[in-house]
Amino acid sequence: MSGVVPRLYLPASEQQVAELGRQAEQELEQGYGDFLLLADGMEDCFPGMRILGCRDWVHDGSIAASQQFLEILRESGTPVDVELPADVELFPVAIDGDALQGIFMFHLPGSVPER
């Protein structure tokens, strides 16, 4: 049985992490920010899924997969579908290779709704 070894990227700088927080328009969760200072992303953290780093949000003339995923979440009404307010701020921190599944941080302007 062969296993996949996760691939870590070189650390992001404090400036890059701060810029990512500005781009996310929300404060990055401390654990995620600390991770980026150790490794600017990781391939195969879960089978077929990668943790996004600052490097994934740099645009080189085309829209990065991470940005596409975020736009799909917003346009599809995903927050409302999972009973979050429409004005919730979403920020993907991990996506699969097809940018169809992900893990994301969210920030609510008010308090967390009861479920």
Characteristics:
single chain, 115 residues, alpha+beta, five-stranded antiparallel β-sheet, 31% helix, 21% strand
| Portion of residues within helices | 25-40%
What gap, in angstroms, lies between the N and C termini?
42 Å
Proportion of strand residues: 15-25%
Q: What global shape is seen?
A: globular
**Helix/strand/pairing category:** alpha+beta
Largest sheet: 5 strands, antiparallel
Q: Provide mean pLDDT, rounded.
A: 82
Side-by-side strand order of the widest sheet: 1-2-3-4-5
Number of strands: 5
How would you spell out the order of helices and strands?
Answer: EHHEEHHEE
Give the radius of gyration: 15 Å
Low-confidence stretches: none
Number of helical stretches of at least 4 residues? 4
Describe it.
The model has no long low-confidence stretch (mean pLDDT 82). This protein has a 5-stranded antiparallel sheet with strand order 1-2-3-4-5, covered by helices on one side. Strand 4 (89-96) and strand 5 form a beta hairpin. It starts with 6 loop residues before the first strand and ends in an 8-residue tail after the last strand. With 115 residues, it is α+β, with helices and mostly antiparallel strands. The longest helix has 12 residues, at 65-76. It contains 4 helices and 5 strands; from the N terminus they run βααββααββ. The relative contact order is 0.16.
